[in-house]
Amino acid sequence: MTQLYDAALAPCGLTVSQRSILVHIQRLGGSPTMSELAQAMVLDRSALARNVKPLERDGYLVQKPNAADGRSRLVEVTASGRAKLAESNALWRKAQRRFEDVYGPDRAAALRVALAEIYSDEFAQAFNRTAL
Questions:
Q1: 120 and 128 in contact (C-beta within 8 Å)?
Q2: Which InterPro entries match (predicted)?
Q3: What class does CATH assign to 2-129?
Q4: Closest C-alpha to 58, from 12, 9, 3, 5
């Protein structure tokens, strides 16, 4: 699935993972800590850090010290990153339409609901409570 969406986003130069990071930062109010971002994306911090580096290198986001605690770092999307995200939106919508055309709109909607449940904090907590 990632390969299909990466191909759809290729004209703007973002991968689906990079776009997701930019979207999540904005959804979290624009200046989350790396830990908050990792938690929201259900990623470990090292995986997130690897994915953040190219976005930072390309000037799409910046990391700043958190004045509130001095230890954590805040992540912010730059003006260039907001422009890149806006550029990706039409490609994303087109890919979503193609997915629904092939998979079916009802099945696609059901899949989105199921994925939202799986990625929820409640699911993670229940999963972690379940003994192996």
A1: no
A2: HTH_MarR-typ (IPR000835), MarR/SlyA-like (IPR039422), Tscrpt_reg_MarR-type_CS (IPR023187), WH-like_DNA-bd_sf (IPR036388), WH_DNA-bd_sf (IPR036390)
A3: mainly alpha
A4: 12
Spatial distance between the Cα atoms of 124 and 59, rounded to a whole number of angstroms: 33
Per DSSP, helices labelled H in 1-132 are 2-9, 16-27, 34-41, 45-57, 79-103, 105-118, 121-129
Q: Where are the domains of the chain?
A: 2-129
From CA 55, how far away is CA 14, in angstroms rounded?
9
pLDDT score at 132: 64
* Six-digit token string for 41: 């994306």
CA 81 to chain CA centroid, Å, is: 13
DSSP 53-91: HHHHHTTSEEEEE-TTTSSSEEEEE-HHHHHHHHHHHHH
User: Residues 49-79: pLDDT tens digits?
Assistant: 999 999 999 999 999 999 988 888 999 999 9
22-53 residue pLDDT tens: 999 999 998 999 999 998 888 888 999 999 99
* Rounded Cα gap, residues 52 and 63, in angstroms: 9
d(CA 122, CA 92): 28
